[in-house]
Specification:
By secondary structure, this protein is an alpha/beta fold. Helix 1 crosses helix 6. It is globular and about 55 Å long.
């Protein structure tokens, strides 16, 4: 089924596409690789979904223009072990959702609109978008609140469908939530990107929705809950996602609990092995990448767990150290630690120059491109946020920055403006030099 055409029809658009002159004027080129840069996100987020699709068609690296979206789209092929070299870029799809007065909705549509401005995968490695939110958050799902009123993405509900922040529920009689994810994944794959999503494993941060009763706290000792966890995540993989970022993964099985900051019990080592194995088997995909937050140090522990990569082991500001670890781990094809430009706990304050230096080290600190280590970035590393917020704040809270209650005003005020545009241009220059390595 052509899910993109189904989405366009569901939104009231015709499926015939036209070239987008605006995108041609904004495109950055690296051989056949094209994306939009020297932009601020509001320029894309205030466009329509059809314009976003036409933009992706216009800058297609296939060097042809499709009048209608193709029926068959394959994920970019970087082999089964693509995850050990990838650049993971987390997009807070709740923060860029449509905020209309106190309502938050349609985050997946906003993410589709932003896709043309994400650099596609390079010749030697994949770029992978990680979506911050998929499942409903426990408190205030579908609502934005005051700037410092908690509304955390880190608390999720299972067995309750998908977040009101993310899915367009006004059209689910025409296109299901799962089909909306399929459309997003087809568009991302067409643009040359891999895709994934964030999940949590701390029991007290997960609620199980009971159709005929109150929500109950997730229990790792309950086999039905473990089965539900596997089913919910496999169902998402079946829509086209290929990566899962696991929050608090370092502490699985009770490891290094003195530094554990989550809430509630964690799965045992054997349980997590089982979960990762079952998601792979049930989805039938040999290409899946599982990334563990801070799961570094004891590499074999995490490799044997089934993880592909982990964060926060290598000093990201030091080019020579990154290159040293790249050379040391060049033959590791099952699990590698990566470097962080920033993570979901980033509270801001890092200069643009420091961020650009980290991106430079992530993209170029190696002897050969085949030795490159994975990297981890946040939306803010590509599109700088306004001065008085940060990545972690937007994970913990869901404020609207609209001055008049409209979505357009929120999008315009969420991100840095003239300096953000110049920074985005400089990020593009770094990716341009990396694309054909």
């Amino acid at each position: 089924m052509n899910y993109v055409n189904k989405l366009l029809k569901s939104l009231g658009y015709e499926t015939e596409l036209e070239k987008d002159a605006w995108s041609l004027n904004k495109q950055h080129l690296s051989g056949d690789k094209k994306w939009l840069a020297n932009i601020v996100p509001s320029e894309l987020l205030t466009r329509t979904v059809k314009q976003a699709v036409e933009s992706l068609m216009t800058i297609c690296q296939c060097n042809r223009f499709y009048k209608t979206f193709p029926d068959v789209i394959e994920t970019p092929d970087y082999g089964d072990k693509w995850g050990v070299r990838a650049n993971y870029i987390e997009i807070n799809n709740r923060a860029i959702a449509q905020m209309d007065r106190n309502i938050t909705k349609n985050g997946i549509l906003s993410t589709i609109k932003l896709l043309p401005a994400i650099p596609p995968s390079a010749k030697s490695w994949a770029n992978c978008i990680i979506l911050s939110q998929i499942f409903p958050n426990i408190y205030g799902d579908g609502l934005n609140k005051l700037p410092h009123e908690e509304n955390s993405i880190y608390g999720i509900k299972l067995n309750g469908g998908y977040s009101k922040n993310i899915i367009d529920f006004e059209i689910i009689d025409k296109i299901s939530p799962e089909e909306q994810f399929c459309a997003f994944n087809d568009l991302a794959h067409f643009h040359g990107l891999k895709t994934g999503f964030r999940t949590v494993i701390s029991a007290d941060q997960i609620k199980v929705v009971q159709p005929d009763g109150s929500d109950i706290t997730f229990d790792w000792n309950n086999t039905e809950h473990v089965e539900l966890f596997v089913k919910e995540h496999t169902k998402l993989i079946d829509t086209g996602f290929e990566a899962i970022f696991i929050d608090s993964a370092k502490h699985i099985g009770g490891y290094d609990m003195a530094n554990y900051t989550g809430v509630g019990a964690l799965p045992t080592y054997e349980q997590m092995q089982y979960i990762i194995h079952e998601i792979r088997v049930r989805s039938g995909k040999t290409t899946l990448s599982f990334i563990g937050e801070k799961s570094t140090g004891d590499f074999k522990r995490y490799q044997n767990l089934g993880l592909t990569s982990g964060t926060a082991f290598i000093e990201p500001d030091n080019y020579d150290e990154v290159k040293h670890w790249s050379q040391s781990l060049k033959y590791e094809n099952h699990y590698t630690p990566g470097i962080e430009v920033s993570n979901d706990n980033d509270t801001g304050g890092r200069s643009y120059e420091a961020r650009l230096n980290r991106i430079n080290n992530a993209l170029f600190a190696y002897e050969y491109p085949s030795d490159k280590l994975p990297s981890f970035m946040q939306m803010e590393d590509i599109f700088p946020l306004r001065y008085d917020t940060n990545t972690h704040h937007l994970m913990m809270c869901n404020p609207s920055y609209s001055t008049d209650g409209t979505p357009q005003s929120h999008w315009e005020n969420l991100f840095a403006k003239d300096d953000g545009r110049e920074y985005n241009r400089k990020v593009a220059e770094l990716f341009i030099h990396a694309q054909n390595l």
